[in-house]
Structures are given as C-alpha cells and as structure tokens.
Amino acid sequence: MLLPVSPLPQVEFPTIQVTAALPGGSPETMASAVATPLERQFGRIAGVTEMSSASTLGITQITLQFDLDRDINAAARDVQAAINAARGRLPPNLPENPTYRKINPADAPIMILALTSETYAKAQMYDAASTILQQKLSQVKGVGQVRAGGGSAPGVRVELNPTIMNHFGVGLDDVRTALANANANRPKGQIADDKRAWSISTTDQLLTAKEYRPLIVVYRNGAAVRLADVATVTDSVEDLRNAGLTNGEPSIMLIVYRQPGANIIDTVDRLYRLLPQLEAQIPADINLTVALDRTATIRASVRDVQITLIISVLLVILVVFLFLRNVRATFIPSVAVPASLVGTFGVMYLFGYSLDNLSLMALAIATGFVVDDAIVVIENISRHLENGMSPAAAALQGAKEIGFTVLSISISLVAVFIPILLMNGLVGRLFREFAVTLSVAILVSLVISLTTTPMMCAYILKPHGHERHGLVYLLSEWVLNLIVDWYGRSLAWVLRRQRFTLLLTLSTLGFTIYLYVIVPKGFFPQQDTGRLTGNLLADQDTSFQAMDVLTKRFSDAVMEDPAVQGLTVFTGGQSGATNAARMFVSLKPLEERKMRADEVVARLRRNLSGIPGATLYLSAYQELRVGGRVSSAQYQYTLRGDNLDDLKLWGPKLRDEMRKLPALIDVNSDQQNGGLQSSLSIDRVAAARLGITMQQIDDTLYDAFGQRMVSTMYKPLNQYHVVM
Question: How far apart are CA 549 and CA 572, in angstroms?
Fold first, then answer.
C-alpha cells in the first residue's frame, strides 16, 4: 500500500520546543536570566505565530509555533541560529547549551516503552535507556523527541555535613574546588625513540564513590582533611527527584514523541521493527515492553471506515441490481465504482494525501455520486436498445445525447466544494483533503461514465428483443409500475395545490434555520481514542517524597477501574515541578468497557475525589489539538498582562469565577506561585565589610541546596557528574 494511513489529514502547526536547564535555578531566575534572552532572539524569527514559555525549578521550556505554510526544517535552522546569538547573554554556569526539538509538547506520545528488572537498579536501567535506546529511537524517521523518564543517570552524590565542615573550617567552595579539580580528561602526548612509541595515560579520573572518599579537600593544622571526613559519598543518581510507574510497578520509561506532520502509523511501524534490535543491545535481565501504543485505536477506526466503504460499494451495486434487474446492466456500474475509486487513489498519492477518516468518508460518500453518472448513461442507452437499435449504435447515440447532462451534473457537484477549497487556516487545511478527494472521485467517474461505460454497454448489453424474463422480473416490474403510478398521482396532487406546496417549502426552510440555530456547535466532534491523559497536581508546597507517595496512591486507584487496561505515570525530571505528575492511561476496547471514554473519566473523577492531598485532572485524548501549551483540560484560556504582579492578582480571581460556572468542571491554573519560599535579606553593608560578594553568597546557597554538578566523569559511552 503506497498511501500512508493516519487518523486525520496533516494539519499540525510546525512547532518547536526549546529547553534550557540550570539545576537549582529558581523560576524567577530561569525566567529572567534564561527565558528572556532567548525570547528576544526568537521574536525576530519570521513566521512565528505563538511563543510561550514556562519556567520552573531549574528548567525553562519555550514553545514556538509557526505558520501552517512554514517548513519545520527551515524554522529549526532559524531557531538554532537564534540560540547561538543568545548564548552570550545566558548565564555562564549553564551546564550545556539550550536544545530544541521538533515536537509539540501539547501532543501525546505515540509510544511509551517501559524498562523493568528484578536485578538491575533504576540508575543502571536509566543508563541503558539513555545511552543506548534513546539514541537509537531518536534516529527513526518521524520521531521528534525521545525522553527518558522515571529516573536519572548514575552519578556520585556528596552529602556534606555542615557541622563537621565548620569544625574543620572547611567551606563549601573548598569542597567544590577539590571535586572540580579531581577529574581531568586532557591530551597527554606521546613518548617516542628511534624504534618505539608509547602513548601516555594517567589516573586523572575518579569514577566511583569509593575513589572519591579519600580525596584531600584542604590541609588544616598540617593534617589533611579528606572528603570522607566532612561528607557522605555514595554511588547514586544525579537527580533524586524522579519517579515513574508502569501499571503500578517502578520502571524507567522511554517516551516517544513524533515530529509535527510525520505519519504516526509509519513512525510506529518503524519503531516496532527496531525493537528486536534494541532488546539485543541491553542486558537480558532488563525487560523492554510497550506500555502504550497510540496507533491501536487509530488502526481500528481506520479499519472500520474501510469496512464501511466496502459495504457502501456493495450496497450501491445491490440497489442498482434491484432496479435494473439485469446482471449485465448491473455489472457495468459495478465496474465503474471501483474504477473511479482506484483513479481517486492515484490522484491522492500524487497530492501526498493519506487514508484517514476524512478521506475515507469522502470516498464512502462518493460511491453514491460516482454510480449516478454510470446509471444515467446506461438508462439512456437502454432506451435506444428498447427502440430496436444495435448495442454499438445505442451506446454511441446514448452517450452523445447524455454527455452534456452528465458533465453539468458533475461540475455542479464539484462547485459545492469550491468554498471549502478556498478556506484558510486550520479548518481549511483540515477539510481540504476531504473536498479534493470527493471532487476528484466525481471527476474520475465523469470520465469513466463517458468512455468506459458506453464501451462496456456496446459489448455486454444485448438487443432488447433477445432477453427473456422470469417470474421474479415480472413481479418486480409490477411493483415498480405501482410505485411510478403512485408517484404520478402524488405529483399531480401537489401541482394542483401550489400555494400549499410553496408554504410547506418555506416552512421547511424556516424550520431548518431554526434547527441550525439551536443545534449545539463545536470545532470537532468529541473522539473516543481509548486514551486518557492526566495531570496530577498537589499543593505547591508538596515535597517530592510526599508527591511520590501520592503518585503511587492515585496510580493504584486508577488501575482498579474495570475499564483501564494500562497506565504510566512519572513525576519530576524535566518538568522541574515536584508537586506535579503526568499520567497516560490506556483503556480497554470499547466492546469490553461498554462505556465511552468521557463516562470513564466521570467515574474516575468520582472515585478519586476521596483521596486527599492532590487532584487528578483527566481528559480523553483528542487527535486534533490546537496550541503548544500542555494543559490539564481540553480547553485553555490564556491571561496576559504587562507585569507579573497583575497576573498574580487577577489569575486566581478569574479561576475562582470560572469555577462557579455550572457548565465547567476541572477548572485549574498553571500559575504556580503559592508554594513556600525562604527569602534571605542580605545586609550589603556587613557583606562589604567582610569582603563577601553577592556572587559568593549565591554560589554558597547553590552549593548547599541546588544539587550542583561540580565535576564531570568521562566514560566511553557517556558522561556522568558529581553532585553536591
């Protein structure tokens, strides 16, 4: 099959997400020192229609959305140039340059892979996932980003004891400097004589906690103060604030997002073909399973529409046979219908269209249109056969007489879709493929009805006098004559009462307008994709340890629902917020759960309302999404202001008023400024007297509380860090 398969036509806005990390940076620091310089450069890129940023603890994410006509690869080059231009204005201690990915963060992942093991620790599984699997998956065509979640890379953690450090007179900067100088990975040169050459290697790296413990930090009173004297050094992970569950069990997850515009079915098929190779490259004790596949319901829905299309073709042929009551005459339009559809497939392939729900629906509708032209031609040819003409002469004369009529009918049908073809924006892009597919099918059937249909009539149909009819034919003829007589009498009755008929017509028109006004309207019908997305939000002062417990409780409660088939949830990591978790739920097939996804959400909402400490906002995932902001609900309302204080004042007020509206549920806000905060008021006079700068104060606080990466350990496959 050359035509790709997808749920809907390609209507995604080109979207790029830029991520910058500064471990320990407060949201205010990330917004002012990282987000602002980048946004100033991004604002100069042509074609940007929407730019939004979110800054949390240590993470800034900026989402850029472009015009529909903008090429995403060209936009990515402009984004990279803007990042390079802004680098001089970013903090010098930024661990690495900001990175961009061609993904829409509001989109759901197309696949989630889970790694579990009974023998390997989560740090080791994460190392295998990020070092081997993540890179291989990112190379697959159509993949925009692969995130490793639920854990963190291995690292050496140094937990300092301030009391003992004070006793020895050791400062945090002393420890940071000692750790930074403990590792080096520089060229050493070569020694050679007349006959041999020796490469030089040194033990210039420390790779385990055991090697770091005897590290000398400073000398006090002639004695060495070692790292083990003032700190607890362990082989652990770089970031402790990470957790992930798959069906209630701890796991490391690989979350795969697609590029905007990439075909989801083809991309997932490529991923499945790669899985056996990936399983062979990781230890056998690590189990790699598919926790979520977004294409399962897409394939089922497209398959249902394909079956509907086949049934439509068969029903059209059956109806034609019931009225023509002639196998030969029925065979001709039965060939015209699939021939028209095959011709339409060829044009769709040339235009780059896909077999999606809308294009297949257009083909299903077209089956009724394409058979009309053939029936009109056959009917006129049959009339000449009844008058005694030969099949060849009747076919030539009948096609000549009816050609203009068939042409005018087809052109008038195509003209109906011209306004849709001229529509702009997202709606126009969405329904353009539907209109073009249906128009092409009608035009192809026009050509076939004026060429292939008369030719087949000349060779297949027999002269009228050579046919013999049985009892069934005569009985059906009698029934059809009764229908024609009844229609004649009813038509005469209507023509005698013209004023009443006109009044009835106007009343029908008025009632139609009334129904148009009162019928509920929406952008796109609510879908049941068999997938739920959810955001678990706790109080803003919730610690990661408490959030980990809440995540487990909500995960177990959701898994108890009889309609739920699988679940993945993760917290921490790149989100930067310790009071939030992201959840993806797979539902059982509709025939098993016996209820729609919205009803499952309503039931879960009732069952989960009794769990204190957090709220889980669930919604049925929709294939068509607008915007690039991650939301906890299906609709978003953005409040903008000239300064942050106005947003802090009016954001909660608007949220509280919206919660009073009976038509709205799960009203929430992404404004996270109500958590606990410890503020230090610096006595600048005393600091100046003691020779202490603001930079030293910030560095000391960062060393103590920021999970600061102070040294890099170089290994063949990856780089790891020492964290204070």
Answer: 13
